[in-house]
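anyone else get weird line breaks when pasting these?? whatever heres mine. first is seq + tokens for prot A
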Amino acid sequence: MTKIFLASSRDIHTPIRPQATTNMSGLKGNSLIYPNWLCDGKLLHFTSNFQATYPFERALEILECGGLLAIKAHAIKNCLGYISPDGLDEVYRNYLDVLFKIIIDQYGDTIWWTSMGEITRYVTS
């Protein structure tokens, strides 16, 4: 059976620590910073645990724990008058650019810049 992934949980409030679990939106009780298996090992679950409305320190805390930094953003900033605080506008892109430069400066080549699909393929091969 092909193993696939699911990105259901979103938690940008729970403090970062290795044993932290999600308690915001989507599936609750999943690891906040590590991918975890669901459905008897058929789905690899990822939690969105950062957005650019939070300080850089949250992202760095996740990485310091050896966790997966999963950044949330809406593709559209303004949707029929609703302004998304984490919409991918120029300000958000600049914020992420600075964050990524900090990560590169601090961690260099030890960071794996990848996708959820690639992680799933890696852990199931």
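and prot B, same format (seq, then tokens)
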Amino acid sequence: METLLEIKDLSKSFDLHNLGKHIRAVSHVDIQLNEGEFIGITGKSGSGKSTILKCIYGAYRIQQGSIWYHSKKFGRINLAEASERQMLYLRKHEIGYVSQFLNVMPRTTARQLVQQAILEMGESKSFAEKETEKILTHFELDQELWDSYPTTFSGGEKLRLNIARAMVKKPRLLLLDEPTASLDHDSKIKVKLLIEQLMNEGTTMLGIFHDLEFMNHLVNREYNMQNGVFS
């Protein structure tokens, strides 16, 4: 089994200049993620879980360590040293990210958001339209909302749309940041079904959770994080 992602000695800290504080978010983290695996990271809020995902996705620059990713386009690449252009390509075509928060362009409807994600992959407009309707139906997003602006959505509706937008691209690597945090039980089941489907199609996943019980039978390995280090 080929290694898709290998994190070595990852450390990240933040300087809060206005408070004169230096905060160590994560220290000396090592993770190896093989193709097709689903690894879960658990821990309390503020333990550093989300920082790891943001470092992989390029939202944070790290102070120490390396994040080696086996890209289809670039081969073995250290994401910690990748250019902005390379990261933009990888986010569009290879690495998906599901956050608890939905950041969208104003005046963009739910349908347009999902369609844009598919069109970025180079697919046709007719294919994008068909797949958009399929996934919005899967997540039971009310059809009356499809052509509405997500700013008017409830927290749960925004999260379902966010998950749909990331998963519809069927990325090689999918980063999940508390993907079921504010969802009801039925919506969680929908997420779980889609995760199972993506795993069967070869997507590799790294997810963070407060409680892994819901994903128990899907996760290959679990890491527990406390105060920025794995316990």
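btw re prot B: Residues 117 and 224 are 32 Å apart (CA to CA). The chain has a mean pLDDT of 89.
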